[in-house]
Amino acid sequence: GHPQEFYRNVPNCMVIDSEDEDVKELLIENYSSDLIRFYYGQDLIGNEIGAAYKNVIGIAAGMLDGMKISSLKGALMSRGCREVARFIKASGGKEISAYGLCHLGDYEATVFSQYSHNRMFGEMYAKSEKYDKLAEGYYTVKAIKLQADKMNLDLPINNAVYKVLYENSKCEEEIDKLFSRSLKKEFY
Question: Could you list the active site residues?
Answer without folding.
Answer: 54
